[in-house]
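Milestone M4 deliverable, item 7.
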Amino acid sequence: MESKSMETRKVLYLLLAFCVAAILWFFVDTTNDKQVEREITGIPIVYTDEDTVLADRGLMLLEENTDSTMDVTVKGKRWNVAQMDSSSVRVIVELKNVTSPGEQRVPYQLTVGSRFDDLVQVTKRSISMATVNISELYSKQVEVKCELVGNVAEGYNAGQLQMSHSEIEIWGQQELIDQVAYAKVKLDIGSATGSISETLGLQYYTAEGEELDASGIRTTVENIQVSLPVFVTKELRLTMNYIAAPGARLRSMNASLDPATIMVSGPAEVLRDRESIILGDFDLLSVGNTESTHTYGITVPEGCTNLSGVTRSTLTISYPDRTTAVVVTDHIRYDNAPEGRDLSVQTPEVAVAVFGTEADISALTGENITLVVNLSDYSSALGSYAVPATVEINSGGDIGVTGEYEIQVTIREPGDEPAPPEEEGQEPVMSPEEGEET
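Output delivered:
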């Protein structure tokens, strides 16, 4: 048992010794002024002005025989140089001063990342200048094609394909550019039930349909905007926005449109939820006893085509069961009557002109009609006033009212003598407009 305990302690001592040694090594290595060197390889060379200044001069940079990487040796404390890699050094070559084709040597700019800038120094470089291979730019125009993948859903049809560019200019090495017969994009429409618009990348092909590697081909147009409108043909019902009122409901009238429908073709997303076309507003109070006709232009939804060829529809409408009558009522109600005042009327009965169906009018009596007088503006008034009145009908029928009405109301303090009553046999009062139809 004691032997096993001794073995455990030995292991712990060894681990402790290792940790102490590592700490001492780290301390000595970071505080020691000893300098070491290290080679960093494969540092990428970044070329600028290739697609701007160089291209404007009709020149291009070839990958063949052009330096793409370089190696450097850095010197510093072991701890610092050990943390560096190819990303810690940046090499930039500006091509703005290149004016002619051919292989040539150009200067470069080498910088060390800010993290190590004051801690290391570059002691060796694999190249003193960058070698570049410049070629004259060769360009030509090529056609852009679009390959459709998928199909439109049943009942729909596709319109004409639209592309932002039907041809583009490409440039590069003549050997490669001469192989390009056309450029192509692929549009996957799936099972389309609506118009499609996408931005697609270009692919390049030989005359035999073989796809080419696009890495050596340059163009100012990297992507093509492609749109495919998807249409549907649909029969739409023609209708009016009928404005109804009491006594003037569409259910009581005979109304028809000729034609009543048209065939329309248009974008699926426009017509998908569309079932009708509203030709305009029509006030049903304008309908009299005789039949009338009204013609309206047909405006199809934006982007759609009227396949029926007709551009106007005629509304024929009549009110075959329209009856008018004058009914006398003595039901008067005061709303917002002034408190502490006595009220009386000089016109206790009013003749009201009404209209509606024969059944509704024949069932109407004065008991079903109430004139409502709103006295909210007369809370402090005394005397006699002609106050506008609204007509309420509670017969249960659909009945309209013609004309405007007012009640002569006398407002007095309690105890004041009321005005003398009207003579017996006097006819009910009705304004000149009352009884006339609108």
